[in-house]
Write a structure and sequence with these properties.
The chain has 309 residues and is α+β, with helices and mostly antiparallel strands. It is built from 8 helices and 17 strands.
């Protein structure tokens, strides 16, 4: 993916999976690449259409939740590109979990029933529903691994004031409830997800992407109860299958570990799984759109000109 230089550009940042351009210190141009990361490591090969899938799901979901809280998005001029307001971010990810799975399950199964200061009930099985969704925040690391953090430590360390954290918590709960409702319409269960927030003046905005396969986990609702009763693995749509493949091949992002070979066949499987999630979550056929770098640049420039008028 090319690196661009836009008129009025004041900063550029290349993240694990996205390139972010700051324009006039007011707007962000966020380009979702086809890079894929797991365990905070960028894997060596790109996944076709992944950027488009993430960007278009996020735009759809931000539109579907804009009545709950303000969000950063202004336009999506290209399949893999979003333009929005530049906020001062809270250096924390608001992770919310409806089911005991993934990191929460690995913690619980390891004998620790407390996560981010939240005590999880005894006697739960993997993938069971929590009595109520739990919020288990993590720090947003610039480099290295994100780390679990409690509400109390977030306030104590000045990451958010007590008043602001109350708003973040409220928005997180309401967004998750809306996400579950949208998923249920598509016969899915939104299992867990994360939200990121920022501030402009005194207003808190929802930022980044939401309810995508990179930030969320979905189960198929059909057959969920039967699979739980039999102790079978749940059929899911998320990036977890990539993490599981890495774990099976002795890679968890630790020093000295080597990423296993990503064959063309395996890359195709990952791409198809992302497309499957798009079609299942959105309820529409995915239409691949490949633009040249020049066309992407021109579309973004045209959108920026409208903003600056």
């Amino acid at each position: 993916m090319a690196t661009f230089n836009f008129t009025g550009q004041t900063n550029f940042y290349s993240g694990k999976v996205r390139d972010v351009y700051t324009i006039a210190d007011q707007w962000l141009v966020m380009i979702a690449s086809n890079r894929i990361s797991a365990f905070d490591v960028i894997l060596p090969k790109a996944i076709p259409y992944k950027g488009q899938v993430l960007n278009q799901i996020a735009a759809y979901m931000l539109k579907a939740t804009e009545d709950i809280c303000p969000n950063w998005l202004l336009s999506a001029p290209a399949p893999n590109t979003a333009i929005g307001k530049k906020c001062i971010p809270y250096k924390v990810e608001m992770v919310i979990r409806g089911n005991l799975t993934g990191h929460a399950w690995r913690t619980y199964h390891g004998g620790n029933t407390t996560l981010c200061g939240i005590t999880m009930p005894d006697g739960m099985k993997e993938n069971d529903f929590f009595p109520e969704p739990i919020i288990t925040p993590s720090t947003k690391a610039t480099v290295g691994h994100d780390e679990d953090i409690s509400k109390e430590d977030i306030i104590k360390k000045g990451i958010a004031t007590e008043a602001d954290y109350a708003v973040l918590e409220k928005y997180t709960q309401e967004l998750f409830e809306r996400g579950k409702q949208l998923a249920a319409k598509q016969e899915l269960i939104l299992v867990d997800t994360k939200y990121e927030f920022g501030k402009i003046d005194d207003t808190i905005y929802l930022m980044d992407e939401i309810h995508t396969p990179d930030s969320s986990r979905y189960f198929y609702a059909d057959g969920y109860e039967e699979r739980q009763a039999k102790g079978e693995r749940q059929k899911q749509l998320s990036k977890e299958f990539v993490r599981e493949w890495l774990i099976e091949n002795n890679f968890m992002g630790k020093q000295g570990q080597v990423v296993p070979e990503m064959t063309d066949e395996w890359i195709s499987v990952i791409s198809n799984r992302y497309i499957e999630l798009y079609e299942k979550v959105i309820g529409e056929k995915f239409v691949p759109e490949i633009l040249s770098d020049d066309e992407t640049f021109n579309r973004i420039n045209a959108a920026l000109r409208v903003l600056s008028l």
